[in-house]
Amino acid sequence: PPTGEIDRCVHATVAAGAWLAETGRLDEGTHAFETSTEPLEVEIERKTVWMHGERSTVSTVDLDHDRIAAAIGADPATLADIGADLPTAIASTGLEYLVVPVNFLEALSGLEPDFDAIAELSAELDVTGVYAFTFDTLERDSTIHGRLFAPAVGIDEDPVTGTASGAVAAYLREVGAFDGELPAEMCFEQGHFLDRPGRVHVRAGTDPIVIGGRAVPTLEGTISVPEQSDDEIIEL
């Protein structure tokens, strides 16, 4: 399980916004969600919940392809091939990730990550995790297919990662991946190799970048908190 609280969690924000909208507690439009760090600007638009990230940052890093390949369990050639055109970089829209382009989906699906090595690399670079991606996708309308490894925060591989999607969108914009013709909206697919597929929609035409998705109820329940005095500790 995760080893700490995540300051900006797109999944939880989208889920909360979708439930509040579905139950009539929020109308379509823009709202502010209070968090442990700062309020998040959230927009509800036709069953899609959009979260505004922080201003993006992207900085290239000089890392040997052999070292990265050893950490994520790849053939170095699968990184060097596309790395001739796209650099490895640290990107963020609130949380920082090491972004690693991979040439083909077959190479991405065949990764055999060394989680200890990834955790060590993440700590060294002060990033949340390593996001490897390819433009080779399963769905025709997807922009990229990604995999996120974040053992440094207790998540060996995350099925779908909203904050990383925002960071990668900032990266794609910064490096000119689309020859100056950035799509108005991108769709990132992730989680298929964990049998938990998902899609994240990203609008990167402005800053801050906007990250969105849809949610459906998977379970319902209630939590009852007993009355207590000021000096009592509640155990659930």
Overview in brief:
This protein is of the alpha+beta class. It has helices at 10-22, 65-72, 76-83, 105-109, 115-125, 162-174, and strands at 29-33, 40-45, 48-52, 57-60, 89-92, 96-101, 129-134, 144-150, 155-158, 186-190, 198-203, 210-213.
Features:
single chain; alpha+beta; twelve-stranded mixed β-sheet
Structural summary, described in words:
- The protein has 236 residues and is of the alpha+beta class.
- It has 6 helices and 12 strands.
- Strands 1, 2, 3, 4, 5, 6, 7, 8, 9, 10, 11 and 12 form a 12-stranded mixed sheet that branches.
- A hairpin with a 4-residue loop joins strand 8 (144-150) and strand 9.
- The two termini are 19 Å apart.
Kindly estimate the percentage of residues that lie in beta strands according to DSSP. 25-35%
Low-confidence stretches: none
The overall strand count is: 12
**Count of DSSP helices?**
6
Helix content: 10-25%
Mean pLDDT across residues: 90
Could you give the distance between the termini?
19 Å
Strand pairing plus helix content: what structural class?
Answer: alpha+beta
Report the sheet with the most strands, covering strand number, pairing sense and barrel closure: 12 strands, mixed
Summarize the topology:
Elements: H1 10-22, E1 29-33, E2 40-45, E3 48-52, E4 57-60, H2 65-72, H3 76-83, E5 89-92, E6 96-101, H4 105-109, H5 115-125, E7 129-134, E8 144-150, E9 155-158, H6 162-174, E10 186-190, E11 198-203, E12 210-213
Parallel strand pairs: 6-7, 8-10
Antiparallel strand pairs: 1-2, 2-3, 3-12, 4-5, 5-6, 7-8, 8-9, 10-11, 11-12
Helix pairs in contact: 2-3, 2-5
